[in-house]
Amino acid sequence: MLEERVLSRVVRGFMDGFLELGPCEERDIPGPQPGKRYMLYLHVPFCERLCPYCSFNRFPFDEDRALPYFDNLRREMRMLAEKGYDFESLYIGGGTPTVVIDELCRTIDEAHSLFGSLDEVSSETNPNHLIPAYLEKLDGRVQRLSVGVQSFNNDLLHQMGRLEKYGDNETIFQRIQEAVPHFQSMNVDMIFNFPAQTEQMLIDDLAWIVESGATQTTFYPLMASPSVEKSLAETVGAVDYAREARFYDIIWRVLSQYGYDMSSAWTFDKSAGGMIDEYVVNYEEYPALGSGGITYLDGSLYVNTFSVTEYNELVPKGVLSVRDVQHFSKANIMRYRFMMQLFGLRLDKAQFEADFGVPIELGLPAEMAFMSAAGAFDVNDSEQITLTPKGRYLLVAMMRQFFIGVNNLRDQARAQLNGAERQLIFDAIEQPCAPVAEIKPGFAPMNA
Fold first, then answer.
1. What is the pTM of this model?
2. What pLDDT, in 10s, does the model give residues 275-305?
3. For residue 210, what is the DSSP state?
4. Are 429 and 438 in contact (CB under 8 A)?
5. Omega into 95 within 30° of 0, i.e. cis?
């Protein structure tokens, strides 16, 4: 699709200058603004086994490092409460948040005691943690659980190194079915457009989702971030973006037939809660705590240290873990709003003008002209903009390039790690079991 190629190139160029970090000398973030809604993100950077394609900040699990880390995560929450923050929503990503289930539960309980407005908690997990002992502890504490599956095709799972880690499709399917009754929203994370994936494989994945009873699913496009693009080309070849739109069309058409509504351009929902992975849709501003967390407040991006060692040294001293910052121009803040609200399927034009002092047609003339000419807008009146099916796909392509840029930001932050921590990550990464058909998705939302 010509529009996708043009859009991807433009966003790629935009991101090259959008995420350039500088040191945050004050090691702090702004306090809350009266009347503004905030979401809190917590990052747990530990996994029992590291996946070679993951771009998030993560380290091999070690109890001696993880226990003080959770304690310090709770200290950071108390520091935010002292600054006057309150939160309606909490999202816990990783890594694997459930890697120490009792510590996770203790952290959620403390969040409720600190933040009186908190009424929804989302957490990520892996299929091997969908077991009764874990589910019973999460029941009532977590309203939305998101499990990373990526695909139900055993060949693809083997190529990703996940078959041996988490079991075959039948095992994962049964665990999802057992987990569904415990949560208001049970989300299954999937990836589409693997080089080895056929249309029939994708249709089969959709059938597994529907039959599992999952109330929500998120289908991310395969993202060749800078850190994995070369290895992708050397193993399975370049990602074929030419068929991405066709695969996406299959996904939304099939899921809509089975009662799934779109919550964002790539999230499909049957639950009443409406909680989704891309919390940036519902909460434009969010402090992030924990090593590797990324905060967005007042038009600035703050990145926490990627070093767990430094994190566990800073926080007991009463210092937030912020290390780097990027301050955005008004134009870039408007572009961020444009992208995130349309990704959430509706842009509020009156709110845009009230916040920026200019109609969107004058604030972002090039963006509006391109999307209009491409046939992306279904409704574009004085109140709102909504998207056509083509427009939704263009937002998928736009967000794919945006998150690839965020991966590049993570690479900048990870480059600051000392040799010991870099080696710790390298030594723990397990190579996939099928080297000729190695798959490295490299997906990365802003935090998780």
1. 0.88
2. 655 566 678 899 999 998 999 999 999 999 9
3. H
4. no
5. yes
